[in-house]
């Protein structure tokens, strides 16, 4: 069964192309809005019991998510508000379960000025994405594949842009095994309309993920390796520049190992199946890019907790970006299935 999964991985890799988020339009699509996801580092791909997870890996859509709804909100950096709502529902047919999601970003109000700097009023900017997805189990295997389609709308003052994107995911899951493996290709698509007539790339991304739950230890580990479509994702940190006595500035030199580590995100969840659990994660790239010279900022670290009360689950995440900025994310999940006595366990 694992061989089938690896063949799928190779196929996805062959059709991928280079694109790193941050150099493209609609970059908000690669920002986590889920409190549980955020606490684990921001890009976990293997959460099988979370109705928000299909936003990152549509292969995790499964029947146990039926009639679960979740809402998340974060007062992000610089007064930016981000949030999302997810819902899953079972139907009859080959594609039994469908998942829907709305993600939005409100950048707030800005001062509008003419070319001479004279203020002429204010304007707003926002992004929104609507997604619908489903999954399918490959017969006689433990491999599940999924896809979702996203309609994207972005506006800045009187200008706007729309786009259409697809996510593809695959996951190897066996209820008798303590591990899972995932492969995801996200944001494959194009702009339907542009801001100024110039077409821009979407934030295409390829990532693999894994999770492992030791037999006698209630601590599930998560690993994500992102941006596989491009090896060099390093950006010199201005804080690490050096200046000699003549005033010549030398940028930070990023080693092979340093760049490799920036692809990694790790997370851990203590008591993952209990009513109360604790989470922690570390994003190596964020930690390196927001590092301050000779100052311990703890950038890249995130942590949080989950609290389940009957059919309601509260999630909280605290993300450390910089010594001058931190982000709190709140999540609320409700199980609307009257025939289920508890939140679905971690299985299909």
Set down the secondary structure blueprint.
Elements: H1 2-14, H2 35-39, E1 68-75, E2 81-90, E3 97-113, E4 119-137, E5 143-156, E6 159-173, E7 179-193, E8 205-212, E9 219-225, E10 242-243, E11 249-250, H3 256-261, E12 264-270, E13 276-283, H4 284-289, E14 301-309, E15 312-322, E16 325-335
Antiparallel strand pairs: 1-2, 1-16, 2-3, 3-4, 4-5, 5-6, 6-7, 7-8, 8-9, 9-12, 10-11, 12-13, 13-14, 14-15, 15-16
Low-confidence segments: 2-19, 342-348
The largest beta-sheet arranges its strands as 1-2-3-4-5-6-7-8-9-12-13-14-15-16
- CATH H-level homologous superfamily name: monomeric porin ompg
Mean pLDDT: 87
Strand content: over 45%
Helicity, as a percent range: under 10%
Backbone shape: globular
Structural class: mainly beta
Major beta-sheet overview = 14 strands, antiparallel, barrel
User: What string gives the helices and strands in order?
Assistant: HHEEEEEEEEEEEHEEHEEE
Individual helix count:
4
Short précis:
By secondary structure, the protein is mainly β. Helix content is 9%, strand content 47%. The protein has one domain (2-108, 125-238, 249-335): Beta Barrel (Porin).
Describe the structure.
There is one protein chain. With 348 residues, the protein is mainly beta. The chain has a single domain, classed as Porin. The protein has four helices and 16 strands. It has a 14-stranded antiparallel barrel with strand order 1-2-3-4-5-6-7-8-9-12-13-14-15-16. A two-stranded antiparallel ribbon has the order 10-11. A hairpin with a 5-residue loop joins β12 and β13. It is globular, with a radius of gyration of 21 Å. The N terminus and C terminus are likely disordered.
């Amino acid at each position: 069964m694992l061989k089938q999964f690896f063949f799928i991985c190779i196929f996805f890799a062959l059709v991928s192309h280079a694109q790193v988020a941050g150099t493209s339009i609609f970059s908000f699509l690669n920002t986590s809005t889920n409190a549980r996801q955020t606490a684990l580092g921001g890009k976990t791909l293997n959460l099988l019991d979370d109705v928000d997870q299909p936003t990152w890996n549509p292969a995790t859509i499964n029947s146990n998510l039926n009639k679960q709804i979740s809402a998340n909100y974060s007062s992000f950096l610089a007064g930016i508000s981000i949030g999302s709502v997810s819902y899953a529902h079972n139907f009859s047919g080959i594609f039994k379960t469908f998942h829907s999601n709305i993600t939005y970003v409100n950048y707030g109000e800005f001062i509008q000025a003419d070319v001479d700097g004279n203020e002429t009023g204010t304007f707003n900017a926002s992004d929104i994405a609507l997604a619908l997805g489903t999954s399918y189990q490959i017969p006689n295997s433990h491999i599940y594949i999924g896809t979702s389609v996203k309609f994207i709308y972005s506006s800045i003052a009187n200008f706007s842009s729309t786009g259409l994107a697809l996510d593809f995911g695959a996951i190897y899951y066996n209820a008798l095994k303590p591990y899972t493996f995932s492969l995801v290709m996200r944001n494959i698509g194009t702009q339907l309309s542009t801001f100024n007539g110039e077409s821009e790339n979407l934030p295409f991304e390829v990532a693999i993920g894994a999770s492992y739950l030791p037999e006698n230890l209630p601590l599930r580990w998560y690993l994500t390796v992102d941006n596989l479509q491009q090896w060099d994702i390093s950006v010199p940190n201005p804080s690490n520049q050096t200046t000699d006595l003549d005033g010549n500035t030398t940028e930070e030199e990023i080693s092979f190992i340093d760049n490799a580590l920036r692809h990694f995100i790790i997370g851990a969840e203590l008591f993952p199946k209990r009513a109360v659990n604790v989470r922690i994660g570390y994003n190596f790239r964020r930690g390196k890019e927001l590092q301050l010279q000779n100052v311990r900022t703890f950038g890249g670290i995130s942590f949080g907790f989950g609290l389940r009360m009957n059919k309601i689950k509260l999630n909280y995440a605290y993300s450390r970006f910089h010594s001058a900025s931190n982000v709190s994310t709140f999540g609320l999940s409700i199980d609307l299935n009257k025939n289920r006595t508890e939140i679905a366990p971690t299985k299909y």
